[in-house]
TrEMBL record, chain A:
Protein name: Xanthine dehydrogenase family protein molybdopterin-binding subunit
Tagged with keyword Oxidoreductase: yes
UniProt entry keywords in alphabetical sequence: Molybdenum, Oxidoreductase
One Pfam family here: Ald_Xan_dh_C
All residue ranges annotated as the PI-PLC Y-box domain in the record: 623-704
Transmembrane segments: none
UniProtKB/TrEMBL annotation, chain B:
Pfam families: FAD_binding_5 (PF00941)
PROSITE patterns: FAD_PCMH
PANTHER family: XANTHINE DEHYDROGENASE SUBUNIT C-RELATED
Organism: Sporosarcina highlanderae
Keywords assigned: FAD, Flavoprotein, Oxidoreductase
The keyword Flavoprotein belongs to this UniProt entry's keyword annotation: yes
UniProt-recorded name of the protein: FAD binding domain-containing protein
TrEMBL record, chain C:
Alphabetical list of Pfam families matching this protein: Fer2, Fer2_2
Provenance organism: Sporosarcina highlanderae
Keyword Oxidoreductase assigned: yes
All residue ranges annotated as the 2Fe-2S ferredoxin-type domain in the record: 10-86
Domain of life from the UniProt record: Bacteria
SUPFAM superfamilies from the UniProt entry: 2Fe-2S ferredoxin-like, CO dehydrogenase ISP C-domain like
Protein name stated in the entry: (2Fe-2S)-binding protein
Keywords assigned by UniProt, alphabetized: 2Fe-2S, Iron, Iron-sulfur, Metal-binding, Oxidoreductase
Length: 780, 276, 169
C-alpha cells in the first residue's frame, strides 16, 4: 500500500499536556481547594467476613466539626456495573477487611479521620474464605447468600447460586474431548497469583454537591464519567440530565479508576449534609485496601499437539479472583475466556472461566483486562511444551501463531484487516533479543544470563454499542476547539485526538485546542476511557466531526468564492479552488459566517459533529461462547533478558523488548511511552507485587513501604520498542488500540527467562528471589 | 494527615528539654522526644501512636555536633543520616546507613531516631556495636555515658533522651564491610543486614533483620574467627548460636533468612579475608 | 524555645520560594498540607503520606525532603522551594524535551529532586543518580526518559562549564 503524505499523523508531536504538568500547574482533583467544602472519611471493616450486630456512633459524634455520619442502612441496596451485588456501605454483613461501614462528614479532614477511628462496630465473625481455591470447594462458606436474586446489569454474566461463583463463562469450540484423545503429546500445568494493586500515584477521590434544584454535581478521578451518570440514575433514581460529572486530568489510572466506588459514597455523604459540597479522598492505605484492586488468578492449562507439533486441543480452567464483589471481575472472566488461547490457532477449545468470590478486597479492571494474567499461563505452557517436544520455543510459537483465515475461541473469523501480524512481531523480537535458541550463558563474574519471550493478543472488549462522540467548534481566528469525553489519564489521548483532527482538517497542531477536562454537560457521550478503545472510537468520531466541518466549510466557502462546493478543498486554514489553490479564502473569515461587503451575513459558527459506534459486535452464546465480541485484535511479541545471581537468587533485567502491531501509529513517541511504561508496569507486578493476607484475610502490606513497586534503577537497563504497522481499515488512519498492550507479555517473558536461567519451572508470581529459591531448592 | 492534636516544643538546651518533658509529664500528658520525626509522623498518621506533647531536639547544639574531639568522634543524636554519610568520618557507619530508607528520607532521618526506632531494624546501631561506641543519655539528674551494648539492650527511662554517640577514633578506619539483603527493591527493610570490621586481626560483626532485634554476639564472632572450620561449618555453627529464633515474616520466611544469612557470611569472609 | 499550642491554631511564618508567608497551622499539620491548603501551592502532591514515593518532595534549604514527613512547624526557619518556582529550571525543560512525563503526578517531586541532584553533584554518575532517584516512584514511564532528562542536563552543564573555563583562559 502506498503511504500517503501526512501532515502530523506518524509524527512525534510534543504532548500538549507536558509543559503544564512540568510546572506543577495542572490541577488534579485533589488540588482543587474550595473554602467551606466538607470532608468525608470512611470508617472501614476490621473483619474480612462477619455479620454486623451493631454500629455505635456516639463517640464519633463527640469529635468537634462532625456534621454527619452515614451507615449502610441509609442505602441498603446492592449496586454494580455487571452484577448488582455490592451495597455502597456494608449492610448486614461485611465481606472484606477495609470495606466501608460508615462515612463521617466533618469540617476538616483530620476531624473526619479522628471520628472515623471512634466508630465502634460489633461483629459476629463468619468463616473467612481466604483463597480462590478455597472458594471453589463445594463446602466453602458462602459469601453471597442472595446470589440468585441480584440484578444483572449486562447480559453475559452467569452467577451460580449456592456457590461462590459470581459468573461462569464457557467456550466450546470444535470437539475438545475427541481431539485431546488423538494428541501425540500433551501438557497440563497450573499457575497462580494473588490480588495486587494498580498503585496509580494519585489516590482516588470524588466530590459531590447536590443543588437545591436537584442537580448532582460530581467531580471525580474516574475513567468512566458517563458510567457515573448511569449508576446514579439506575440505583439512586436521579434523572440522567441532572447528573453532571467533571473529570480533570488523572494522576494515573491503569483501569483502577474505571470502577465506580467513591461517587455513590460522596453522594450519600452530601445528601446527609443537605447537599453541601463534600470531598472524599482516599489515603494510600484506603486506596489499596478499600478501593478495588487487581484480580488474583488461578489457571490450569492443558495443551495437546499432533505429530508435526501443531496445537490440536486446548483446555483452560480459569479461577478469576474477584474478591468480595464481582465488579469488573465478572467482565474480565468473560474477556479471559474469549481470548483464552492466546494468539494461537487451536481448532478444539474448551474453556471454563469462573469469577470467584473470596473475602478479600474486590477487584476491577486492570490494564490488559485479564490478558496479562491469561498470557502468563499460556506463554509459560508454550515454553514448557516446547521443551517437552525438544523444539525451539520461538519456532514452536511461529508454527502455531494465529493468522487471517483462522478463528478465535468464540469462532470470530480473522481477516487481514482485523488482526495484526503475529509472526512478523515474533520474528523481529527474535532478532532484537539476539535469540540463541534458549541457551543460557555465564558471565565473567559467574552470573547467569537468559532470555525469555512471549506473544500476546487482545481484542477490545467493549459493550456492543460502545461509542464516542466529538465536536469541533471553530473559533473566530479560525482555530478549532475539540470537545470530547476521552479522559487524559497519562496515556496522551488528547494529543492523539488533536493530531487526528489536524490531519483530517489539514491544519496545524497548534491550532487545535483540546478541552483537557471532561464535563458531561458539554462533551458528547463516550463509553469510557478503557479497553484501549479511545484512539479507535473517539478518533473515528473526530474524523467524522472533521468531515462534517469540512462539508460546512465548503458550503459557506462556495458562497464566498462564488463557485460549486464540489470544486473546493480545505487545507492550511483556507478553503480554496482545487484547480487554482491561490484562489481561496481564510477559514477565519467564514467560520463564524460569511459577511458580504454590504454587511449581510450568511452561515454561522462552523460546528462539526461526529460519532462512532462499534459495528456488528454480538454477545457471546451462554453455552458455547459463540459470538463476535471484539472489533479487532492487536498483537505483539515481547522478550526479556535477565542476569541471575545463583548465590543470592537476585536478578537484574537487562533488556525489555516489545514489538507490536497496533496498525498505523499516530504518534511514535507517545506510543513508545505506552509500550515502555506497559512492560515496566508488567515487570514491576511480576517481580515483586502481591497483596499478602494473614489467616484472617487482612492485607499485611497496604502501603508503598511494604507493597513494593519497582524503583528507579531496578527497571530494565534497556527498553527496545518497535512497531509493525499493518493498517486496520476501520481505524482512524489505520490505527488499532495500543494503550494496554505493553503490559500483557511482561510477566510471561520474565518468568520464561528466569525459568530458563534457574532450570526450574516458575509458575507463580511475583518472582521474588525467595519464590525462586522456594521453588528450586525446597520444591515449594 | 495526623488526626489528633499535640503541642510542640523546640527547646534550645538539654536542660530546657528535660524540664519541658517533666512539666508536661506531670500534667499527665503523653510526651515524646522528636528528632527526625519520620517514625513519629508515620505512626501517628497510621493510628499506631497518639501523643499529647512533642519535644523537638533539633534546636539543641549538643545534638547537632559532628566532629572529632580528641580521641573520639562525637555524633549528635539529631545529625541526619546524610550528614553522616557525606562527612564519611566513620566509613562503616556511612556504608551501613546509606542503605537505610531512601536518599530523600535520609535528609530527615537522624541517627538518634534510627537508634530509638520502635521497629526492630535499627541498622545504624550495627557499626556502633562493633566499634566500641558509647552513648550519652540525658535524664532528670545527670548526663551519663553508657556503653552502646547496654544502651541497645534496654529502654530509656521516662524523660531521658539520647544526646550523643561517641566512637573511638582508633576504630573509625578499620577494614570493614556492610552487607544488606532485601526482599526485592534495594530500598526496604532488611531480610538480613550486617556490619563488620576487623579489629586486632579478628572479625567483629553485628546483625539486624535475622532476629527481632539487632545484636552483636561474641559467641558468633569467635565461631567466625575460628580458622579451623570450613566456611560451611562456621555458618552451620553460627546459625545455632543466634540470640533468638530466626524471624519469619512478610519480608522473608525463616528458611530463606537462614539461607541468606549463610550466603552473607561467605561473602563477608571473602571480602575481609585479605584484610585479616 | 519555639512552641506551638495546637488546640488553637498558631500563626507562623514560612519562607517559601523566597517570599515570607504567614500561615495558620495545627502543630500536627504536615508541611505538605500547609503548602497546599494554606498557600495553594498544590504542585507538591499527596500520594503515600509515608515518605515512600517522593511525590510530595520540596527542597528545604536546597535539599530534597518529603514534605509529608515534615511538620510545618519544623520548617519555620527554613528556606523552602517548591515546583512553582521552577519554571525556568533546566531540568524542567529537560523533562518535557525527553518525554519524561505521562500522567504528571510524580513529575513535580521528581523535578525538584533532580534539580537538587544536578546542583549538588554536577559530576553525578549512574550510581549517584540511582541513589537519589530511588526516592521517587513513577508508575507510568519506566524511568528511562527521566534518566535521559537528568543526564542531558548534566551533560549540558558540563559543556557550559567547559566553555566558561575556555573563555576564562
Amino acid at each position: 500500500m502506498q503511504k500517503e503524505f501526512r501532515k502530523t499523523v506518524g509524527t512525534a508531536e510534543q504532548r500538549i499536556d507536558a509543559v503544564e504538568k512540568s510546572t506543577g500547574n495542572v490541577k488534579y482533583l485533589g488540588d482543587k481547594l474550595i473554602t467551606g467544602m466538607l470532608h468525608a472519611k470512611v470508617a472501614t471493616s476490621t473483619e474480612a467476613h462477619a455479620r454486623i450486630k451493631s454500629i455505635d456512633t456516639n463517640e464519633a459524634w463527640k469529635v468537634p466539626g462532625v456534621r454527619a455520619i452515614v451507615t449502610g442502612d441509609t442505602f441498603p441496596f446492592p449496586i454494580g456495573p455487571i452484577l448488582a451485588d455490592r451495597p455502597p456501605i456494608a449492610f448486614d454483613k461485611v465481606r472484606y477487611y477495609g470495606e466501608p461501614v460508615a462515612i463521617i462528614v466533618a469540617d476538616y479532614p483530620y476531624q473526619a479521620k479522628q471520628a472515623a477511628s471512634k466508630i465502634v462496630v460489633k461483629y459476629e465473625k463468619l468463616p473467612v474464605v481466604n483463597s480462590v481455591e478455597q472458594a471453589f470447594q463445594e463446602d466453602a462458606p458462602i459469601i453471597h447468600e442472595q446470589l440468585g436474586q441480584y440484578t444483572k446489569i449486562i447480559d453475559n454474566v452467569y452467577p451460580v447460586p449456592g456457590t461462590n461463583i459470581a459468573s461462569h463463562i464457557k467456550i466450546r469450540k470444535g470437539q475438545f474431548g475427541q481431539a485431546w484423545a488423538t494428541c501425540k503429546d500433551t501438557i497440563t500445568a497450573t499457575y497462580s497469583f494473588n490480588l495486587s494493586d494498580h498503585a496509580a500515584m494519585e489516590t482516588r477521590s470524588a466530590t459531590v454537591e447536590i443543588n437545591p434544584d436537584g442537580r448532582v454535581i460530581v467531580h471525580s478521578t474516574s475513567q468512566s464519567p458517563f458510567t457515573i451518570k448511569k449508576i446514579l440514575n439506575q440505583f439512586f433514581n436521579i434523572e440522567v440530565g441532572k447528573v453532571i460529572v467533571h473529570i480533570p486530568m488523572l494522576g494515573g489510572a491503569f483501569g483502577g479508576k474505571g470502577a465506580v466506588q467513591l461517587e455513590p459514597l460522596a453522594y450519600l455523604a452530601s445528601s446527609a449534609v443537605g447537599g453541601k459540597l463534600v470531598k472524599l479522598q482516599y489515603e494510600r492505605e484506603e486506596d489499596m485496601m478499600t478501593a478495588p484492586c487487581h484480580i488474583g488468578f488461578n489457571a490450569t492449562v492443558k495443551l495437546g499437539v499432533n505429530e508435526e507439533g501443531k496445537l490440536l486441543a486446548g483446555q483452560y480452567t480459569f479461577l478469576i479472583e474477584a474478591g468480595a464483589y464481582s465488579d469488573q471481575a465478572a467482565g474480565i472472566t468473560r474477556a479471559a475466556a474469549l481470548d483464552c488461547t492466546g494468539p494461537y490457532h487451536i481448532p478444539n477449545v474448551w474453556c471454563d472461566s469462573y469469577c470467584m468470590y473470596t473475602n478479600h478486597p474486590y477487584a476491577t479492571s486492570f490494564r490488559g483486562y485479564g490478558h496479562p494474567e491469561l498470557t502468563f499461563a499460556i506463554e509459560r505452557t508454550m515454553d514448557q511444551l516446547a521443551k517437552q517436544l525438544n523444539v525451539d520455543p520461538i519456532e514452536f510459537r511461529l508454527l502455531n501463531a494465529i493468522k487471517p483465515g483462522h478463528s478465535t475461541p468464540t469462532q470470530s473469523v480473522l481477516t487481514e484487516n482485523n488482526i495484526g501480524d503475529t509472526a512478523k512481531c515474533m520474528i523481529r523480537a527474535k532478532e532484537l533479543i539476539e535469540w540463541n535458541g534458549n541457551q543460557t550463558t555465564v558471565t565473567e563474574n559467574g552470573k547467569i544470563r537468559a532470555k525469555g519471550v512471549s506473544l500476546f493478543w487482545k481484542t477490545s472488549t467493549t459493550s456492543t454499542n460502545a461509542q464516542a462522540g466529538a465536536v469541533l467548534l471553530f473559533e473566530p481566528d479560525g482555530t478549532v476547539k475539540l470537545s470530547c469525553a476521552a479522559v487524559e489519564i497519562g496515556q496522551g489521548t488528547k494529543t492523539i485526538l488533536a493530531q487526528i483532527a489536524a490531519e483530517r482538517l489539514k491544519m496545524n497542531m497548534k491550532d487545535i485546542h483540546v478541552t483537557m477536562e471532561v464535563n458531561t454537560q458539554y462533551n458528547p457521550h463516550q463509553w469510557r476511557t478503557v479497553a484501549s478503545s479511545t484512539t479507535f472510537l473517539a478518533g473515528n468520531a473526530v474524523l467524522a466531526a472533521a468531515d462534517d466541518a469540512i462539508r460546512q466549510l465548503k458550503k459557506i466557502g462556495a458562497v464566498a468564492l462564488q463557485c460549486s462546493e464540489n470544486d473546493l478543498e480545505v487545507g492550511n486554514s483556507r478553503v480554496y479552488l482545487r484547480s487554482k489553490p491561490t484562489y481561496g479564502i481564510d477559514i477565519k473569515t467564514i467560520c463564524l459566517g460569511y459577511k458580504y461587503p454590504n454587511g449581510h451575513t450568511v452561515g454561522g459558527q462552523i460546528i462539526g459533529t461526529g460519532v462512532h459506534v462499534q459495528r456488528q459486535l454480538t454477545e457471546m452464546d451462554k453455552d458455547t461462547g459463540f459470538g463476535d465480541p471484539g472489533p479487532w485484535w492487536s498483537v505483539g511479541a515481547q522478550a526479556v533478558e535477565i542476569e541471575w545471581d545463583e548465590q543470592n537468587y537476585t536478578y537484574e533485567i537487562l533488556k525489555a523488548i516489545t514489538v507490536m502491531d497496533g496498525g498505523t501509529i499516530i504518534n511514535p513517541m507517545t506510543a513508545t511511552q505506552q509500550m515502555r511504561g506497559g512492560i515496566f508496569l508488567g515487570l514491576s507486578i511480576a517481580s515483586g507485587e502481591s497483596f499478602e493476607f494473614n489467616d484472617k484475610g487482612v492485607i499485611q502490606n497496604p502501603d508503598f513501604r511494604t507493597y513494593q513497586l519497582m524503583r528507579f534503577g531496578e527497571q530494565p537497563k534497556e527498553y527496545i520498542v518497535e512497531f509493525v504497522e499493518t493498517p486496520n481499515e476501520d481505524g482512524p488512519f489505520g490505527a488499532r488500540g495500543i494503550g494496554e498492550y505493553g503490559v500483557i507479555g511482561a510477566a510471561s517473558a520474565l518468568a520464561n527467562s528466569l525459568s530458563s536461567a534457574t532450570k526450574t519451572e516458575l509458575n507463580k508470581l511475583p518472582l521474588t528471589p525467595e519464590l525462586i529459591w522456594q521453588t528450586r531448592e525446597v520444591g515449594q | 494527615m495526623i488526626s489528633f492534636d499535640f503541642e510542640y516544643f523546640k527547646p534550645e538546651s538539654i536542660d530546657e528539654a528535660i524540664k519541658t518533658f517533666s512539666s508536661e509529664w506531670k500534667l499527665g500528658k503523653k510526651v515524646v522526644y522528636f528528632s527526625g520525626g519520620t517514625e513519629i509522623i508515620t505512626f501517628s498518621r497510621g493510628g499506631k501512636l497518639t501523643v499529647d506533647t512533642v519535644i523537638d531536639l533539633k534546636g539543641i547544639p549538643e545534638c547537632k555536633v559532628l566532629e572529632i574531639q580528641g580521641d573520639r568522634l562525637i555524633i549528635g543524636a539529631a545529625v541526619t543520616l546524610n550528614q553522616l554519610i557525606e562527612s564519611n568520618l566513620f566509613p562503616l557507619l556511612s556504608e551501613t546507613t546509606r542503605r537505610i530508607a531512601d536518599h530523600t528520607s535520609r535528609n530527615k532521618i537522624t541517627i538518634g531516631g534510627n537508634l530509638m526506632s520502635q521497629l526492630g531494624y535499627r541498622e545504624g546501631l550495627l557499626p556502633l556495636l562493633v566499634a566500641d561506641a558509647v552513648v550519652t543519655v540525658a535524664n532528670q539528674t545527670k548526663i551519663e555515658e553508657i556503653p552502646i551494648e547496654k544502651f541497645s539492650g534496654s529502654e530509656l527511662k521516662e524523660g531521658a533522651f539520647l544526646t550523643q554517640i561517641k566512637v573511638p577514633v582508633s576504630n573509625l578506619k578499620l577494614p570493614s564491610k556492610s552487607i544488606k539483603r532485601t526482599r526485592t527493591s534495594k530500598v526496604g527493610y532488611p531480610i538480613v543486614s550486617l556490619a563488620a570490621l576487623v579489629h586486632e586481626g579478628k572479625i567483629r560483626v553485628a546483625f539486624s533483620g535475622i532476629n527481632s532485634l539487632p545484636f552483636r554476639s561474641t559467641v558468633i564472632e569467635s565461631i567466625l574467627n575460628d580458622k579451623k572450620m570450613s566456611d560451611q561449618q562456621r555458618i552451620d555453627k553460627a546459625i545455632t548460636k543466634l540470640p533468638s529464633t530466626i524471624t519469619d515474616d512478610l519480608l522473608a520466611s525463616k528458611g530463606f533468612r537462614q539461607y541468606t544469612f549463610g550466603k552473607m557470611l561467605i561473602e563477608l569472609n571473602s571480602v575481609l579475608e585479605e584484610k585479616l | 524555645m519555639i512552641s506551638s499550642n495546637t488546640r488553637k491554631y498558631t500563626v507562623v511564618s514560612l519562607l517559601v520560594n523566597g517570599v515570607s508567608h504567614d500561615v495558620m497551622i495545627r502543630s500536627a499539620d504536615t508541611l505538605l498540607y500547609t503548602l497546599r491548603e494554606q498557600l495553594g501551592l498544590t504542585g507538591a502532591k499527596y500520594a503515600c503520606g509515608n515518605g515512600d514515593c517522593g511525590a510530595c518532595t520540596v527542597l528545604v534549604n536546597g535539599k530534597p525532603m518529603h514534605s509529608c514527613l515534615t511538620l510545618a512547624i519544623e520548617s519555620i526557619n527554613d528556606e523552602i522551594t517548591t515546583i512553582e518556582s521552577m519554571k525556568h529550571s533546566d531540568i524542567r525543560s529537560a523533562f518535557v524535551a525527553n518525554w519524561a512525563i505521562q500522567c504528571g503526578y510524580c513529575t513535580p517531586g521528581f523535578i525538584l529532586n533532580c534539580h537538587a541532584l544536578v546542583n549538588e553533584h554536577p559530576d553525578a554518575d549512574d550510581e549517584i543518580i540511582e541513589e537519589w532517584l530511588k526516592s521517587n516512584l513513577c508508575r507510568c514511564t519506566g524511568y528511562q526518559e527521566i534518566k535521559d532528562a537528568v543526564k542531558s542536563v548534566l551533560e549540558a552543564n558540563k559543556l557550559k562549564a567547559k566553555e566558561n573555563s575556555n573563555l576564562a583562559q
